[in-house]
Write a structure and sequence with these properties.
This protein is of the alpha/beta class. It has 15 helices and 17 strands. The structure holds pyridoxal-5'-phosphate. It is found in: Cytoplasm.
């Protein structure tokens, strides 16, 4: 099919996610046909550097021989069989591998197929855990604590613990109750606070909100270290540890949503490791299959599991599951992805990426339209502002972040904005010279667009 015909069929029939479709039709986005390494090629033969890892999930590149082969080998056995009443070889082997790699104590793996469902499952498990542990005099725990500006996915449960108004506000009447904890990322603080004063306020509010609500809290859900979709908002060192201390003290399960930050993105396999934290739930998706196939894992502890481990006539099973739970092809891709972390020393590569980024991002230090650069591992947010001194934003109608990505795309680099934050999310396996190419093009695009 010719590219014009494909484009008109795309416009006619495909409803794209999080997309204002009128603008999509007018813009004419690239239609990707193939990929190789860290590049994607469209139907017109134009090649692009994949600067956001295909929405934060690609890890070792596209068409990686070891992952391709693992999927083919599994395809020669069976593509899928259910985990309801049956078990499967790849889902067992992957669970063992994940348990070995995850923070100690996370011994159980519940599979699903997206980041949203990984979180949804943790929320439901936490709720059911309390319900099954409850005594007649305990009040029901129907409240969840989450961070301001959080993003945990787009199912109703995960939206309920989210705080990005442009995505979540419209569904407000459908959502369950949550307590929003102020986000300790100081750039957007109210003007009356100094940076130190704001961080102190956040610390006090964290404790106050937990103490006040602890008897009703089913869980506390957090993106450890970096709130990605909020525009790469970074928590100060020690914050996650403090959340762990407080939640442990008040018997509140901690859900670490590592859908974005897990699988090497922050420089360690899991972000929780950096603060020596074991959560009660660890949610993984995106990079778990190297960006090949939809798969997610919600990991938890023996303690949580014990509340569900009962006789059939006690009806304490976890009543949740999807048709493709633990899909064999996806588990095979995940096993190969994890093995490549070892054989390719991918975590060392992320350290090199981080060094190159630190050095290159310093070039934006005095840029008149860069308000703040936030960076951890291979995750970067460049916040564009109309005025660096006052932090005044560009008028929304200018869609400045979007303009930068359009210019970069013309120059052969795919990046995505989050509002006026330009996000760079190179794959953990991307070689350093491509990081330079990514920075060269994006920095030039910022200069051209603003
Ligand atoms: N949690 C976090 C932290 C995310 O960044 C995302 C997606 O960006 C999700 C959950 C939802 O994942 P998915 O889009 O696979 O449902």
């Amino acid at each position: 099919m010719q590219s014009e015909e494909l484009r008109s069929l795309d416009n006619e029939h495909v409803w794209h996610p999080f997309t204002q479709m009128r603008a999509h039709r007018e813009e004419g986005v690239p239609i990707i046909e193939s990929g190789e390494g860290f590049f994607l090629t469209d139907v017109d033969g134009k090649t692009y550097l994949d600067g956001v890892s295909s929405l934060w999930c690609n890890v070792h590149g596209h068409r990686v021989p070891a992952i391709d082969q693992a999927i083919r080998d599994q395809l020669d056995k069976v593509a899928h069989s259910t985990l309801l009443g049956l078990a499967s070889v790849p889902s067992i082997e992957l669970a063992e591998d994940l348990v070995k790699r995850a923070p100690e104590g996370l011994t159980k793996v519940f599979y699903s197929d997206s980041g949203s469902t990984a979180v949804e499952i943790a929320l439901k498990m936490a709720f059911q855990y309390h319900a099954q542990k409850a005594t007649p005099d305990t009040q029901p725990r129907t409240l969840f604590a989450c961070m301001q500006h959080a993003y945990h996915g787009d199912t109703i449960g995960s939206v309920s613990v989210g705080g990005i108004s442009i995505f979540h506000q419209i569904f407000g009447q459908l959502l369950f109750e949550s307590v929003q904890i102020p986000c300790p990322s100081a750039y957007h603080r109210p003007t009356e606070y100094t940076k130190a004063g704001y961080l102190e306020f956040c610390e006090q509010e964290l404790e106050r909100l937990i103490v006040e609500n602890h008897e009703r809290l089913a869980a506390f859900v957090i993106e450890p270290l970096v709130q990605g979709a909020a525009g790469m908002l970074m928590h100060p060192p020690g914050y996650l540890k403090r959340v762990r201390e407080l939640t442990a003290r008040y018997g509140i399960p901690l859900i670490a949503d590592e859908v974005a930050v897990g699988l090497g993105r922050t420089g360690t396999m899991f972000a929780c490791e950096q603060e020596d934290v074991t959560p009660d739930f660890l949610c993984l998706a995106k990079g778990i299959t190297g960006g090949y196939l939809p798969l997610a894992a919600t990991m938890t502890t023996d303690e949580i599991f014990s509340a569900f481990d009962a006789e059939p006539d006690e009806y304490k099973a976890f009543y949740h599951g999807h048709t493709y739970t633990g899909n064999s092809l996806a588990c095979a891709a995940a096993l190969a992805t994890l093995e490549l972390f070892d054989s390719e020393q991918t975590l060392d590569n992320v350290k090199q990426i981080a060094e190159v980024l630190t050095q290159r991002l310093a070039e934006l230090k005095d840029h008149p339209h860069v308000g703040e650069v936030r960076h951890k591992g291979s995750m970067v947010g460049i916040e564009l502002v109309a005025d660096r001194e006052t932090k005044a934003a560009f008028p929304a109608s200018k869609r400045m972040g979007h303009q930068v990505t359009l210019v970069a795309r013309k120059q052969g680099v795919i990046v995505r904005p989050l509002g006026d934050v330009v996000v760079l999310m190179p794959a953990p396996g991307m070689p350093a010279e491509l990081i330079h190419q990514l920075c060269d093009v994006v920095f030039a695009a910022i200069d051209e667009a603003v």
